């Protein structure tokens, strides 16, 4: 069950589309009520693999994972993007999300986090307009 209204879902998907517009990077959002593992990062790693995010050509996928009932989340970048972003980038992104999530505003938090990740992806993996394709769906993965 999604914690988002249809309008909020569309807003998140639109944030993904905008973030991916000028980059070859790929962003996904996965939402579920409960985190089946103790560590949300480990769960995000499992979901990352299950969604095939490790198969992007430049290894530049970013996953936003949210277990809304358990109030757990993680942000995970593949090897290509993780090697390029400045130190502390993922932690600052999580801090931004945490600010919104603490108020229960998951849609806005995700939208802002996606925008922030998109800025880094554009910087390090600009869209070339010739060989770049949308390798992964922009839809929210919901369990």
From TrEMBL:
The protein, known as: Membrane protein
Residue ranges of every copy of the TPM domain listed in the record: 4-119
Source organism of this protein record: Spirosoma utsteinense
């Amino acid at each position: 069950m999604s914690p988002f209204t249809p309008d909020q879902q569309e807003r998140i998907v639109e944030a993904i589309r905008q973030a991916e517009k000028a980059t070859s990077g790929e962003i996904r959002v996965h939402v579920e009520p409960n985190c089946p593992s103790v560590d949300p990062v480990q769960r995000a790693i499992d979901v990352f693999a299950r969604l095939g995010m490790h198969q992007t050509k430049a290894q530049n996928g970013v996953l936003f994972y949210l277990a809304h009932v358990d109030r757990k989340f993680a942000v995970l970048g593949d090897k290509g993007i993780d090697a390029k972003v400045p130190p502390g980038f993922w932690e600052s992104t999580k801090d931004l999300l945490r600010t919104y999530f603490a108020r229960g505003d998951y849609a806005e938090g995700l939208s802002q986090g996606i925008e922030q990740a998109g800025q880094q992806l554009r910087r390090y993996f600009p869209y070339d307009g010739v060989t770049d394709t949308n390798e992964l769906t922009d839809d929210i993965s919901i369990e």
